[in-house]
Amino acid sequence: MKLEDMILVVENRKGTETNFLMDLTDYMGEVLGLWGDGYVVENIAGSINELYGTKKEKADWNDLYIAANKSIHASFCRSESQLRGFLTGHFNDGEWSFDMERCSKDCLDVLRIYNMKPDGQPQFPYLHYERVEHTFHAGEVLHNMNGNDYRVLAALSPKNLLLMSLTDSQLIVGRGVNLYERYPKGERPDDDSVVTGIEWDHGVYLGNDITRIDFDILKQEYGEPDRAENVSDVRDMVRRNFWMQKNVEQKEGLPDRVRNAARECLENTFGTSEPEVFDKMLENGLYDGMYHAKEEKRQISGSSR
After folding, report:
1. pLDDT-derived band of residue 295, with 50, 70 and 90 as boundaries?
2. What 3-state class would DSSP assign to 264?
3. Which residues lie closer than 8 Å to 101 by C-beta, 6 or more apart?
4. CB 113 within 8 A of CB 180
5. Per-residue confidence at 217, pLDDT binned at 50, 70, 90?
6. For 114-265, where are the E strands, in sequence order?
7. What are the residue ranges of helices labelled H in 93-167?
8. Could you give phi then psi for residue 116, rounded to 5 degrees?
9. Nearest CA to 259 among 268, 267, 269, 248?
10. Residue 98: beta bridge partners?
């Protein structure tokens, strides 16, 4: 059973809440059966449809009111951090308890696989980690073994990633990122017991305002040096370097001496500080000798006549 197939259930009786975990079959059989024969099939189907809305994040909880003093609140589990919060009473109001006897057996197995006791505390030492070779790429969503999920915005190098937390949009440079498979020690790993996720050596937290981040500096600090393998690579590097200096020259608020120095540097390096002139010179190959490209440069540009 996968974590995302588990249902978090809160039963409220006269203001006292009881938490338990169920699979869908048990939830339909026990919880929806509380209405008895008077609750028609159409209403049950409608309630299940609303419950699936929590899986798709259209709603946080599906609320079912059985009587004036009795209600059921349920949600498909969407993350490890949500499960831990549920086990520690984060979603409860007032007095509450966790009832293991009412939990589906498969759900208790999920707790074991995620190294959690019913109170949300870890069961260390209990898990085995096995490193997995993986090439990270922009756009993929990675699960961190700390319970949070991150989207890769850029692979600055094979092991240094620019990440965005899906919880609070925090931007982070993960340094020394590796992918692991984790499963209970002493057990044969299978599709249900293996949790795949990342861990990193160090995280550099950048805030959540992307407009305040200098990506050129991030690339220089945490990325690999650019390599010019062919003419296209050379021209991309020249273009980036031109605009790195051009942005300084155009940036408002900088002292005139700094902007003038940037303009002078452009003139000395590229022969112009005007983007239109630079583009024409770049297209005509005037900068193709600025970096040491390989023999492929000659093959792409064509033989001379």
Report:
1. very low
2. helix
3. none
4. no
5. confident
6. 127-132, 141-143, 149-155, 161-165, 171-175, 178-184, 195-199, 202-207
7. 105-113
8. -120, 140
9. 248
10. 19
